[in-house]
Design goal:
binds coenzyme A; alpha+beta; Aminopeptidase
Length: 205
């Protein structure tokens, strides 16, 4: 069976567009992104960081950073959205996802740089995640967010998610949606990896 090394994932990236047509690249995170990813989290507004990490923190806790940068470890994947400024790529968003193969449920969390919020990037990233979920064979897409996080709930509502209580945590609400797309409809890196490797090959090993 053909497999893929994490290092090969560099070639798989997607393009997202802001509503104004600005180009944003979405790619799997790399170990060398550690410092830039931490800078991204430090530069989020207190509110955005609180909402993303579901608690007060001035940065991504070191243990979590380690997990974020090792794509595929423990079945979780991180992607970063980058934009070119003065010839240099800057991280302007991120998402982390995992598939539970037993339940075919795909869980995710995401954030967008405060300066780029309300430009359609969150919605574009969500569509891309739905494609990745479909490519991995997921049937349901879901995430948990704080009940006070109006922006995430508005985004989820706009993207057609419905809401249920988060089991065991009254401060959170779960948004979820059945996956109806076939990955080819919205192209994404995971779909291409799957197509090239064959449907049942592991994404990384
Ligand atoms: C939630 C978040 C990802 C939304 O990203 P975004 O790029 O701003 O979202 P979009 O521009 O694609 O918004 C799409 C729609 O969602 C809704 N929406 C998004 N942010 C909103 C806000 N602050 N208030 C009200 N509605 C909002 C709107 O309907 C919006 O469409 P519109 O701009 O045409 O009105 C972003 O606010 C964020 O990163 N927050 C901090 C981290 C976080 O909360 N993550 C979620 C934890 S799982």
């Amino acid at each position: 069976m053909k497999t893929i090394e994490p290092g090969d994932l560099r070639q798989y990236s997607d393009v997202l567009l802001t509503r104004g047509g600005e180009i944003v690249t979405l790619r799997f995170v790399e170990v060398t992104d550690a410092a830039a990813l931490q800078t991204y989290f430090r530069n989020l507004s207190v509110r955005s960081r609180y909402n993303r990490l579901m608690g007060a923190a001035s940065e991504l806790p070191v243990g979590q950073l380690e997990k974020f940068i090792h794509v595929g470890d423990g079945g979780s994947f991180s992607v970063v959205a980058t934009m070119k400024a003065d010839g240099v790529d800057r991280i302007v968003g991120e998402a982390r996802y995992a598939l539970d193969e037993d339940t075919a449920r795909f869980e995710f969390g995401l954030s967008i740089d405060d300066g780029l919020q309300r430009k359609g990037l969150g919605l574009a990233l969500l569509s891309n995640l739905a494609c990745r979920a479909a490519a991995l064979g997921a049937e349901t897409l879901f995430g948990d967010t704080l009940r006070s996080n109006d922006a995430m709930q508005a985004l989820a509502r706009k993207a057609g998610f419905s809401f249920v209580s988060t089991p065991g945590d009254w401060k959170q609400v779960r948004f979820e949606k059945r996956i109806t797309i076939v990955p080819q409809d919205i192209q994404c890196a995971s779909w291409r990896v799957r197509a090239e490797l064959g449907a049942y090959a592991p994404l990384v090993h």
